[in-house]
Automatic annotation (TrEMBL), chains A, B:
Family: Belongs to the FPP/GGPP synthase family.
Source taxon at top rank: Bacteria
Name of this protein: Polyprenyl diphosphate synthase
Gene Ontology MF annotations: metal ion binding; prenyltransferase activity
A matching Pfam family: polyprenyl_synt
Keywords on record: Magnesium, Metal-binding, Transferase
An individual GO BP term: isoprenoid biosynthetic process
Swiss-Prot/TrEMBL cofactor(s): Mg(2+)
Length: 317, 317
């Protein structure tokens, strides 16, 4: 059932990508179809399932679900500029294929499509401002992460603050909007945002762990990318806390770190328990999410939510 | 009186630029204060003056005026990435000072501040969608212009279509919103958008003419920039229409054109009446704007609008 809805989201996104430039249009449609997990729309629809079906407006829900995915896509397109990423979901990125210039405007256009969709679906609602605030948090998270690059004194607190903006915010919004526009009880709406935020935090931490543990063939982006870009994520921060002297000779090189040295650092991160301790953080967020899910109304959807959260967040442990 | 309002707009923009990164914040505030002409807020307030003062909400008008300037600033920050511009309003651009990466997110943040302001000031109004559509047209104009770079077969029609999006759209919106939220008559609201569009078209054409006629010291951006970037504007297109054979040896070099060759092309543009004919186009748009202004309600504001339009658009002739 969710699958059918996600297909409708995918179709709506394609329909909205009306960009005269056919090459860019095609690149964006390919990106939409290329195995993106549609996680944000999925959580959105699951929470909507918990609400009062009779009061729901399916067209409105569809547009909001699409808006969440498009906001995510917009940030991906701009992230790929910053990261100089050649690949995303096994496709050549827009910045690699058409240049950073085209990628700037393409991302901007996706932002306007996002706004089109939320204006159409919730004009007059206080949730418009929530969307704008979420977009702002998302960007500030990215901007701060960028400003912190190559800072060897970056803290865990700072890291958590940045991923709260760049990732957890949108998961929180997805769950919140699903509950609210799905006409759930006030209590469920309140829980939804917190559940989404915890899932988002855990999701990003696991994503950052994968940078240190995954083989290139398993993952759809080059490994150790963050390290080379000077983005020091939780596994590194935890290991460095334990043995700063082991890391400093490498990290003090900043952007001049070689691939060989980066591999040594990655090994040190594992050796000094960085991956293990980061997993402990992620597990705490997952546990908190599951505890909150327990307080949702009983039924099939609750079970599904629990299953998805467990599956998604325990994937690497 | 308008001056006082523009100062309030400036203060509101500063207030909204709450970006944790103090360097970027300072760069944006400097950009706001650095002699930007605040043309869009100016036209906005002038049209509002034509309306029913008793019905007006000063705070709402202030926010909308600021939103127009911020949307303009956002597009400048991203344009500077595309154009590799070192300077804007005699200041080092954000992309030159902090890198393209920072400039991407900074422009994005300005887009969210734009949306914050319009959501706060017109939530529930059909004008929200008009704003979103305007932003979309603006970006498509830029995207198309970029896609047309170095196309020696670019047409005048295409050029006019692109500047209608990238420049005239925002002038049209400024005048339209001034009239609408200033509670003008329906007739004035209808005229406002057309007047703004004609002013915007003439404004951009004159701006493009300056690339071929101004000394570097007079202008705040490097001359012949467009030509070197492969953006073939109206003066060149008109001259080339007359004597394609004179231009092709140079234009066929594309991005490899030298500074010396670009200067030769600039001379050819003047020799073959390109500047003259482009001015004729601009004058037509200006004349159309003035004819439409004539149909506005009588009074001081109408005189001011006429004066400003004449001053602004006949500056180079």
């Amino acid at each position: 059932m969710i699958q059918t809805k996600l297909q409708a989201v995918c179709l709506l996104i394609e329909e909205r990508l009306q960009i005269e430039n056919t090459e860019i249009r095609k690149a964006l449609i390919d990106l939409t179809n290329a195995g993106g997990k549609f996680l944000r729309p999925t959580f959105f629809f699951l929470f909507a399932e918990l609400g009062d079906k009779e009061k729901q407006n399916p067209e409105q829900l569809l547009k909001i679900a699409a808006s969440l995915e498009i906001l995510h896509m917009a940030s991906l397109v701009h992230d790929d500029i910053i990261d100089d990423s050649p690949l995303r979901r096994n496709l050549i990125t827009i910045q690699a294929q058409y240049g950073k210039d085209v990628a700037v405007y393409t991302g901007d256009l996706l932002f306007t499509i996002f706004f089109d969709l939320i204006i159409e679906s919730m004009n007059g609602s206080a949730y418009l401002a929530k969307n704008s605030a979420a977009m702002s948090h998302l960007l500030l998270g990215e901007l701060n992460q960028m400003a912190d690059r190559f800072h060897t004194d970056n803290t865990v607190e700072n890291y958590l603050h940045n991923i709260d903006g760049k990732t957890a915010e949108l998961f929180a919004l997805a769950c919140l909007e699903g509950a609210y526009f799905g006409h759930c009880s006030e209590e469920t709406v309140g829980l939804a945002e917190k559940i989404g935020r915890n899932i988002g935090m855990a999701f990003q931490i696991y994503d950052d762990i994968l940078d240190y543990t995954a083989d290139k063939k398993d993952l759809k982006k080059p490994i150790l990318e963050d390290l080379a870009q000077g983005v020091y994520t939780l596994p590194l921060l935890m290991a460095k806390k334990r043995h700063p002297e082991a890391f400093m000779p490498y990290l003090s090189k900043g952007a001049d770190i070689t691939v060989e040295e980066a591999k040594i650092v990655a090994d040190l991160v594992v050796t000094y328990q960085g991956v293990k301790e980061a997993k402990a953080y992620a597990k705490n967020f997952t546990k908190e999410a599951l505890t909150l899910i327990d307080r949702l109304p009983k039924g099939e959807t609750k079970k599904l939510l629990k299953k998805l959260t467990t599956y998604l967040l325990l994937r690497t442990s």
